[in-house]
Amino acid sequence: MGLLEKAMQYKRELNRKGEQTLIDRIKGPADTEMDGDDALPDIPDADGDMPVSDPAGGSDDIVLLTESDLVEVPDEGPAPDSSDAALPPEPPVVDEDWIEKELLSSHDAPVSGVRDAAEDSEPGIPGADDQGPPSAARREVPPPYEGSFRDYLVLYETGKEIIRAGSEQELFDTLIFLIMGQIGVSSVSIMVQDREMQKQWVIAESRGVSIEESFSFNCDGGILGECDDRRDIVDIENFSHNEKFKEDYLNFISIDARLLVPMVYQENLVGIIVIGNKISNEEFTDEDKDYLYSVSQFAGATHYMLFNKIHVQKELDSLRREISGQVDLNRVRDDVFSRDSMEEVKGIVQKEMEKIGVGMYAFFIMNEFNNRYIPLFTEEKDFLNITENKLSIDVKNGLVQFIARAKGPVEIDDFKSFDAVFEIFTKTQINRMTIFRLYPFRLGDNCVGFLVVFQLSDPSRPEDCDGNLNKIAEILYPYIISFENVRYTKRKYIDTVEQVLNRIEEELRKAERLGIPLTLVEMSIKNFKRYYTLFGIKKSQELMGNIESLVKTKLSDVDFSIRHDRNRILIVLPGKNRDFAIPLSNALRNEIIHAFSGKDLHLLVTFLAAEYPRDGEDVYSLIDSIE
Fold it and tell me: Around Cβ 286, how many Cβ atoms within 10 Å?
């Protein structure tokens, strides 16, 4: 039975007893006189006869009653005293408590603290199954609940304002305005979880009190932990005499805290509303707390949705930038690989770096002739004078070693006090830098080159540029390597020896640092010219290819070999002395002779060995020992 049906049933019951309800006493259109054309038409009676009008032309209609209209009225007792006859009848007593319970029982979602009337129904108290009104004989009406906030219109408007917030800041401003306006407190602060330190909670917004930005609370234990465990409103004063919470209590008092109201959504604590004392110095009533509880429910759901919305929006923006950047960089790649001049490539890359927002930078590449990283190019104006000063970086520099171990972009926060940086740049150059971020490019285990960024238009978020800068490095360095290889074949002077000597020299410096020996073994095929004459160039190439494969099977991971003449192979054995190298070389020589000699020609293979530091302390002296 609906609420209106119950109300009508209650009205009929009172009318049956001869009493009037509030509705009966309201003058409506049915009791209002109407003149002229607005008058209601005559309605025939039960026998179909029309009412007879007053022959005198009076305004009142006279209706003739028949016998069927007359009924016997039971005797209700002695006639009232004449002195009471002139008094108007007393208005009926309206049971407002029962009506209120009926209203509450029909509400789908009762407010916190208000119990459903149907659940609390006792014998004689109308509940969901009652079909009639209450009577004094059947029940005694309990007093209404005094602790809940029952102004549903205020709650509706409050919830509407909260869920309308389009950002976290707007939500916090709305919450503070609503609470301070409705309850009248000295201050309101919003506490949220620190994004970086999950156990720490910080004040995101506050009104009425000044709080330092570094001020934070730990959620493990303490009053904040109690609030997290209870998920209910916590009164700070309840902890004032507890020694366990004394320090925490004083910290909350310092930010004018009296109540902690948790903002919860789907069992997630998303925030805490910190309420100061009431301006009137009164205690918080149950109605105040119920209002705060309702507000926190709206706020918890809204904050959770906003947080996820912002997170998703950031992911979408990042994806859009990545897709957009990918399209642009594909264009850059096609443009770069279509050029046959380094100057043209330099101009293309400089324009793209300016679009990304990189103010100062330098591309370095490995020079194998001197084992140093040299600058390819910088920004157009070269603010740090890197190319003008012919700056280069030794492979032994600590910064290079640091880059070699890194797997991605590297940022050095304290670069102005980093010794390896001071070994490369001057103090004036370092003072002009705002960041020091490196993007290495590798081929296998080798760091071919790297990009160093010294200044960004937005230094607060360098990671936003990482994708584009890595992509530019991936485009530029393969082009340079391919370009150099093509240009190498067309040079008028080609040096193949210096690279070999630099590689050996690098191994010698390692052996020196570690205090270990290093042995060079040169193997030579003495009658290779005779082999070439008998079998031709194709067979000669196959022979050297087979010998190369055989030599590699005898070497460890740190060993390597070099063919530095048409019939000579140089074997480098780091960490091994002559006592190890000679038996190895002898076994290798015998295997080559046995495998590749024939009836027409018996190969003559010889070898010589030189050990560092016994036979020489540098690469030239060692090679002189074996030639």
Answer: 13
